[in-house]
């Protein structure tokens, strides 16, 4: 099946035409437009990355899915428009929909069912302080699949710190979220998370939850969303074979900013509050911040900060909070 997806992507003709604001015309195959950049596969330049703001017009006889800033989806070919910074999507039923280029968040080929809807990144890092002889090995992986009706995300993080006094302290996580996209930029989300944080006394924590949220802002330069929900949590404290279960609320928010002029710079942040509904007075928080700067095409330098807090850790000898700063080198794909 994956072979058929790849064949469908490769079989598309290089018949898409872009007219630039300076009057230049480029012909090739539009691969995807997202985060303010369009990838165009050509015979003479290879795959070129073009700033969306530099494009005046786009046309193609092939089928695309166009997503606008209000979360609406339009499927069809791209018809030439006589007005700069505007495209017309012609549906299979002949319906014409005119959209300003500044209203569009994402464009991808309709036939490319899998690969062109997948984006993500991975990174590895190593930090060492000679004065304290503390070293940290870190790594992360994140990928998102987008479709008109849903999107899902898989993420994984590892962080292992070696301290001469405490030994090795691990902080790992593996998560999966699934969003059913609704009208007016709203969504229903299901989530699962498996994590380990020895600093806060968690040998393992398994969490299953669901929530209702909304994208308050979606543009090619930024994205802001929030969610409320409930989760069932099971925890195993360090040094104990017994587990405990609880029900927690979920209050979360995500904010992403993109700057596309070379070099590309992006910032992402995620904040989560888990007030316990079964353990009176207990609550947890998670905060993650990441700042990325492109070094060369698709390779970047990442500076990340994390902070985790638990008002009542299951291990009485554990710390209430864990925080750190890591640097890493990574690669992004889309």
UniProtKB/TrEMBL annotation:
InterPro entries: DUF481. Pfam families: DUF481. This is DUF481 domain-containing protein. It comes from Steroidobacter agaridevorans. The lineage of its organism: Bacteria, Pseudomonadati, Pseudomonadota, Gammaproteobacteria, Steroidobacterales.
